[in-house]
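INFO worker-7 received task bundle
INFO bundle size: 2
INFO processing item 0
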Amino acid sequence: MRLLCGAHDGQTGVFAVTGDSAVNLTAAEPGFGADLSAMIASAELRAKAQALAAQPGVVEVSAITPALPVAAPPTIICLGLNYVEHIKEGGYDIPDYPALFMRGRNSLMAAGAPMVRPSCSEKLDYEAELMLIIGKRGRHIAEEDAFDHVFGYTVFNDGSVRDYQRKTHQWTPGKNFDATGAVGPVVVTPDELPPGAAGLRIESRVGDEILQSSNTSNMIWGVARTIAILSEYTTLEPGDHIALGTPPGVGHAKKPNPRWLKPGETVEIEIEGIGICASPVVAEGAQQAAQ
């Protein structure tokens, strides 16, 4: 299934998408709620969604304003260095264990919502990433069992404020500015994609300018290995988000001059078979004035 959470006719719900149209699952069954949390928790709802998704869509996808797939993810874990060429362009040594950091809820926003360049920095960078959503609780998950714990896959733009990322050895400040991490809009269940979402083209662009272009098969730590590594130290919970790192071509590594995102631009992240996450870039002051 291809699932989209968003607002239509003043109501927020869950939609099953086929092509340019969608079925409003929440309108058919209020138990689906406003995001994917209920479906993640209920095998019965997932079965109902499959049946409803087979019906002809009556809502135009273009008329739905996307919302976050999970309004309040329990945990958001990100891999920082997962493509060899990206590691090299950043001047790092290739690690034997993934670089990990966490994001807070306020740093995320739905696809289509503005990505905010903060007033304290002009060094807002883009990072195209595959993101998975955990569907089943687990600890010490074996690689061969890892796919059983995946609810679905989506697109993530790990917007990074580079000068603040490098203020400390930990990357927390640069990765947690409000409204810099775009998620969605569509979540695709694993049955619609290759195992582990491998072999998919992943790109970032602004207009006709292609900024990054790679393939998810180039990840050092794939989905199964990542889940096994993370579950060694923490219990993964339904609704947890895991971002799987970015390929080469990020703005700070462009030569001879870095390529920062500017207010007025729209940055798009596309992953083959999943979709496009588009974000207009705005300055923090302009965003505050509009509220």
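INFO item 0 finished
INFO processing item 1
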Amino acid sequence: MNAKQRHTRLIKDEAKRLGFLSCGISKAEFLEEEAPRLERWLKNNAHGEMRYMENHFDKRLDPTLLVEGSKSVVSLLLNYYPNEFQTEDSYKLSKYAYGTDYHYVIKDKLKELLHTIQTEIGEVNGRAFVDSAPVLDKAWAAKSGLGWIGKHSNLLTQKVGSFYFIAELIIDLELDYDTPVTDHCGSCTACIDACPTEAITEPYVVDGSKCISYFTIELKENIPTDYKNQFDDWMFGCDICQDVCPWNRFSKGHNEPLFNPHPELLSMTKKDWEEITEDTFKKVFKKSAVKRTKFSGLQRNINFLKD
């Protein structure tokens, strides 16, 4: 086993020990196929008010601009599929937001992974990314053979579906690279047919400005009244396109204690949500991604569903 193989094995073993679902590695280089796609998506204003998507266009496509001298993009998946779910009579919360904000959970694991690489291998420079920088997570994960991009534009894996977070470590170390897997969506259009706001405008293309997740999380002003009664009770995020995907029959509950929800969250009914106080909000969502909408944002979403 040469040094490159040894280092690759070490990184994948350590990723597994840290609880990641899988780890794939690709060469840090310009994402040629993604460039025209991203340009077209932005030109069509599919990012709505998410103006940050327009920034750092070059960096999104070229990891060597993010980490000088980078050679490898290590992509990692972390399962968040819950073991228990909200009660039926409830406004719905995207499953990824049940527990502690994933940014913190994953950042800590990535720091530990980088520390191990530096301890075991030597001087390796790198940066950890958890969807908080201009990195095209799904494109790198697909390039690294961790799955294929489905028609709903999420990464899909045959054995585990799509309920997982994607993160990267971009490092200046040459490794053995994985190859992409084939697309297994076939003629299925379940996600396209099920989207109540018709946000999946064509296979593999999502108009972010029509997505329920966008309206309930990213949009800061009032939700357009044209979308009244189209949210299917989703008050933060939306999982419809994932819930109907046949590959998600294979989803298994996560084993990350930090992703377990606050005990009160699962039993809250529509009435409880309608009467939620700021104190309860702070208690239930103490370290949650839901804090992004703030109390007033969640109230706005609930009122939009309720009226």
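INFO item 1 finished
INFO post-check item 1: Residues 3-85+98-171 form a domain with the NADH Oxidase fold (CATH 3.40.109).
INFO post-check item 1: The CA atoms of residues 105 and 258 lie 7 Å apart.
INFO worker-7 idle
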